[in-house]
What we know:
Elements: H1 7-14, E1 90-94, H2 112-124, E2 147-152, E3 157-162, E4 169-173, E5 190-196, E6 199-205, E7 225-232, E8 237-245, E9 254-264, H3 280-284
Parallel strand pairs: 4-5
Antiparallel strand pairs: 1-9, 2-3, 3-4, 5-6, 6-7, 7-8, 8-9
Amino acid sequence: MRKPIQGVIAIGLFGLLVARPDAQQPAPPSGTPSVQVGVPGGGRGSGPTPNPGQGGPPGAGRRGRGPAAPAPRSTTGRVLLQGATPGEKGVWLPEGVVTTSFAGNVEIPFQPWAKALYEDRQTHRLEPHARCKPSGAAREVQTPYGVEFVELQELQRIYIFDVGGPHTWRTIYMDGRTHPEHPTPSYYGHSVGWWDGDTLVVDTTGYNEDFWLDRGGTPHTRGLHTLERFTRKDAATMRYELTIDDPATFTRQWGGGFNLRWEPGTELFEYVCQEQNYAGELMVGASVTTGKVDRSSLIVP
């Protein structure tokens, strides 16, 4: 798999984790294909509104600590995706959706083949993420270890770092570019983003088929086109909404969402995926009832 940026750049990024934006990012590129979302002020048309799915109200999951503080902002008034100051560390964790589909109880409009594959995945749970493979779309922010946003204004890019698992990162281009005509398929796809008020909007194409779209096992094809909205509600809560367009997999456009909660004080840490992977039964198919290992699967579904 081709890495999104070279290792030497990645080293430099860790030295810039405290960077904070002070200027508004450009508007969405006019030539960028879009999955329309019916969110007021969304600026991308008026398609179906994503189902709220799971996730509690702003500040939920704070264990009775009272209302959360307002979302931190830069000197220009723009909302920040991380801490209010360079010294405030933290990551974003999923709220109540760690082992489920991102859409909760929403009925997924599967094509027949996709429904059969989805149901098969419920029986063995041979998820690529459990074998240290990167995962795009909703699955990236469903990791129980959390994610960290790194915004570099001078590069006009935002990076989303996966704290655990594959320990990889995703690049979101904020410079007004459009998607390449023939992108090389990858786990995270090719992402372009822009700001809509306090919401980071991310349009992505160019996915490969080597990951599950969410923890529930939802499949997709290379034709997958997503529109994500990251809205920081307050200091403790970020709303994540995803709209999906993949006609080969689903009979219509659909979506869902959930909340992410801020985990203060947590930083990136060393995570060796293979050596510290205690989910061996998810990798080789051990039966919960018999304990026997099923090695009959000839491919990675």
